Amino acid sequence: MRPDTPADHITEAERLLRTAAQYPEDNEPLLLRAAAHLELAGERARATTLYDKLLSGDAEPDNPHLIKALKAANLWEYGHEAEARVIIDGLRASVPADAAAWAIVAETLETHDELEASEATFSTAVTTLLPSPDDEVPYPAQSLLTGRHRVRRLLGMRHDDWDVLADRLHTGTVPLDELHDPKRLWSLGSSDPAELQAEIARLRSELGSYRTALSRPFPVAVLLWPAGELDELLAAYPELESEYPTHEAHLTDIEASLRELAAAGTPNLGIVQGTVPSYEAFAASEATPPSNAALLPQYATTLAARGRATPWPPPRTAPCWCGSGTAYGDCHGGKQP
């Protein structure tokens, strides 16, 4: 079940902190996820403490730029603007190679009405990470183009080649120009039911692109069992056969589920690979029998929180996520549900 209240978020944060104590090798992604839940619960000072713990630990973090960006965004939200600005200036000068750090910094500036600085940050990120508007855009970088388009629209700037690319990559039913139209704000105060209904439709479409999950880069993950692992799982726990009739059906369901999530506007999707020993250890830690099918999505979420997710979709020319060795576009990426 997804946390909905501050108490739920605190409970989930505490669970992740306990998991981090059990799996110190996965300390960084688990503490980052716990910090995100603490922010959602309004416990921003506690979140900052976790960011500081990661940055000041004995081991160098895997992604210090991301942690600093998250810390800066959090600090600004609870009144530490000066400190946040210092961190942001340092990040922009260091030119990170990670799209998530750029997105968080640019969106933080945008949130606090620093639109010119936000546009400059988005533009620097795009030109740094993407060689040319004609090249294939990696999935994590697509939100940079969308965010840049949004801010430039707010500033009344003319479209350039990068804005055209953002328009082309956008898959929603409402065009980006309409989604990012500043005049839309006026319709929110309208007394005309038709105008309000139209705005609701636009907002629903925008959910998939506005403030994307790169601001909190923890994927919504779907669980993949390799053929051998699935055979072992079902031999040990035949109660799960209703979940996995065949391995081929399992792979088909994964692609269909991910496409459905993407169509609903869910960003930052991923796939995590399960193993029977790992699943049994997780079940033991949750004091739940492995035969309980309700445990499977929790297991997937925990693997994702530990940084084990592979982003979906892969590029069409990259090997398919299923492990066939065939290009994604010629394998599951080419099959329609």
Structure description:
With 337 residues, the chain is mainly α. Among the domains are: 97-215, no CATH class; 220-334, no CATH class. The protein is 57% helix and 4% strand. The chain contains 16 helices and three strands. The chain has helices at 6-22, 27-40, 44-55, 64-77, 81-94, 99-111, 115-129, 142-154, 161-169, 176-179, 184-187, 193-206, 227-236, 247-263, 276-285, 295-305, and strands spanning 220-224, 269-273, 310-312. The protein has a three-stranded mixed sheet, with helices on both faces. Helix 2 (27-40) runs antiparallel to helix 3 (44-55). The longest helix has 17 residues, at 6-22. Mean pLDDT is 86; it is low at 208-215.
Question: Which structural traits does this protein have?
Answer:
337 residues, mainly alpha, three-stranded mixed sheet, 57% helix
Shape: globular
By DSSP, the count of extended strands is 3
* Structural class by secondary-structure content: mainly alpha
- Portion in strands: under 5%
Low confidence ranges: 208-215
User: Within the largest sheet, what's the order of strands?
Assistant: 1-2-3
Q: What fraction, in percent, of the residue positions are helical?
A: 55-70%
Mean pLDDT: 86
The largest β sheet comes out as: 3 strands, mixed
Continuous helix count = 16
How far is the first residue's CA from the last residue's CA? 27 Å
Order of helices and strands: HHHHHHHHHHHHEHHEHHE
CA radius of gyration is 21 Å
